[in-house]
Write a structure and sequence with these properties.
Blueprint lengths: L9 E4 L3 H12 L4 E4 L7 H4 L16 H10 L13 H13 L8 E2 L4 E6 L15 E5 L4 E4 L1 E4 L27 E2 L10 H4 L3 E5 L3 H16 L4 E5 L6 H4 L8 H16 L3 E3 L6 E4 L5 E5 L2 E5 L1 E4 L28 H4 L14 H4 L6 E3 L13 H15 L3 H5 L71
Parallel strand pairs: 1-2, 1-7, 2-3, 7-16, 8-15, 9-10, 9-15, 10-11
Antiparallel strand pairs: 4-5, 5-6, 12-13, 13-14
Helix pairs in contact: 1-3, 1-11, 6-8
């Protein structure tokens, strides 16, 4: 097949916040593009957790190019920048209106799940002439389209981590799938009947687990017989609880204080140092989580163990992946959750996201691999930089800037006041840590020293990565 890619559109995979940000920047630069969304509506993955508050207020949740398109179209009212939106708010007040702008209106194809991405006529091995061949995108329905470049903003929501404590499924995990719920179920709404009056185990130590545990705590007060078990691999839950009143970031302490109270009161049963080896089904329809000689019997399980990227669809492209995180090798040290919280990730763009396959970039949560330190604001800057690179504007692509909030924007509804419903804000990142003041040219610090997150007072390594995705 003799064809070149110079006149073909850029294909954006995913119509979530980062995919649509990339589309907005492509539109502003006059580059042709198509957005492929696997679901029936915009941001279909977010729609599954529309009841959950984001970790960041509106001021960090709207991309600059997307804002300009919305303002040009007219009729859009920007939300209050200080309010924490829910996933539903993000869709209804921002993403859905964005898809109706003239620049994006006819560029999004729904129900278009991508099955594979390759080069026309090239597998991973063949080299000669590779860069001149267009990308070939095959969809799940068998149809195909060609592209000059691919911006992969597919996210990680469809690839949850397994329950097994060794990184592979526990024995019997697949067979017990009917009893396992994905992260962030709508415990007090749509999914209430699944949990009311039943015994539920929440597996995981991040903020998605904490959110679900708090909702289950409320449900237990409303429905007799509702029992809650929190199953974690570690022995110390300090990283989830935060430091309470003594936390160096006070709002972060508030994130876990309600959960800590639930555990101390006995309303949530904590089972720690529990690495799941097997999931057994019992004769009465329950399941048992097994770790050595220990067993936890429940009616249903919520898997809140995090997510991982799906690189299988681009298996015939030449990728340079970090062997630990699954991000690009260049990005890995900048997002390492052992060293960084969401608020300390340095600005990065096309250079750090580039693979040996020219024209392919993963952006957004997928670009972070298994690191849980991703923020929308970081993804928007990724999208801007990558699109500038695709347009050949390398000065703009390398002029990466990042304006993160003072405490890392890891607020969630963990801090909602039970009496007023108001969010107090917070951060799920580590305690303040030492930083290098002489950053590389064009990079800068993720947030200023005066911001409060980065403080030159503590030379200990960061020990708490939090969950900011």
């Amino acid at each position: 097949m003799s064809v070149t890619g110079s006149d073909l559109p850029v294909v954006v995979i995913g119509a979530g916040p980062i995919g649509l940000a990339a589309a907005a920047h492509l539109a502003e630069r006059g580059l042709d593009f198509v957005v492929l969304e696997s679901g029936p509506t915009v941001a279909a993955a977010i729609d599954e957790w529309r009841h959950v508050k984001l970790f960041s207020p509106w001021r960090y949740d709207i991309d600059s190019a997307a804002r300009r398109l919305l303002e040009q179209a007219g009729g859009w009212t920007e939300p209050d920048p200080g309010i924490l939106p829910t996933g539903g708010d993000l869709i209804d007040s921002y993403l859905a209106p964005l898809t109706k702008t003239p620049q994006l209106g006819n560029k999004i194809r729904y129900n278009s799940a991508v099955e594979a991405v390759t080069r026309v006529g090239f597998d991973r091995i063949r080299t000669a002439g590779r860069e001149d061949a267009p990308f070939l995108i095959r969809l799940a329905d068998g149809s195909e389209l060609l592209a000059s470049a691919v911006v992969d903003a597919a996210g990680t929501w469809r690839r949850p981590n397994v329950l097994g404590g060794s990184g592979i499924p526990a024995r019997g995990e697949a067979a017990a799938a009917a009893n396992v719920s994905r992260a962030l179920p709508d415990v007090l709404g749509r999914d209430r009947d699944r949990f009311a009056g039943r015994r539920t185990a929440v597996v995981g130590a991040g903020h998605s687990a904490a959110t679900t545990l708090l909702d289950l705590g409320v449900l237990a007060e409303e429905v007799p017989g509702t029992e809650v078990v929190w199953v974690v691999r570690g022995a110390d839950q300090a990283r989830t609880y935060g430091g309470g009143d003594a936390d160096e970031l006070p709002a972060r302490g508030a994130l876990g204080s309600r959960l800590h109270n639930l555990v101390q009161s006995g309303r949530v049963e904590l089972v720690s140092s529990f690495r799941i080896e097997a999931v057994d089904q019992t004769s009465d329809g329950r399941i048992e989580l097994v770790a050595g000689e220990r067993r936890v019997a429940v009616d249903t399980v919520v898997n809140s163990t995090g997510f991982r990227p799906d690189h299988d669809i681009v298996g015939e492209l030449r990728l340079d992946l970090d062997p630990i995180l699954g991000s690009t090798r260049a990005l890995a040290p900048l997002i390492d959750p052992n060293q960084h919280s969401c608020g300390t990730v340095p600005p990065h763009g096309a250079d750090e996201l580039a693979h040996p396959e020219p024209g392919y970039y993963a952006v957004g949560a997928k670009s972070y691999g298994r690191a849980p330190t991703f923020l929308l604001a970081t993804g928007y800057e990724q999208a801007r930089s990558v699109v500038a690179a695709l347009a050949g504007d390398w000065d703009a692509a390398r002029d990466v800037q990042l304006d993160l909030p003072e405490t890392g924007v890891c607020s969630s509804n963990l801090t909602d006041s039970p009496t007023t419903g108001e969010a107090a804000g917070g951060c799920c990142g580590p305690a303040p840590q030492a930083v290098e003041l002489s950053a590389p040219a064009g990079r800068g610090l993720a947030t200023g020293i005066a911001g409060g997150l980065l403080t030159v007072v503590d030379t200990k390594p960061a020990t708490d990565s939090g969950c900011c995705s």
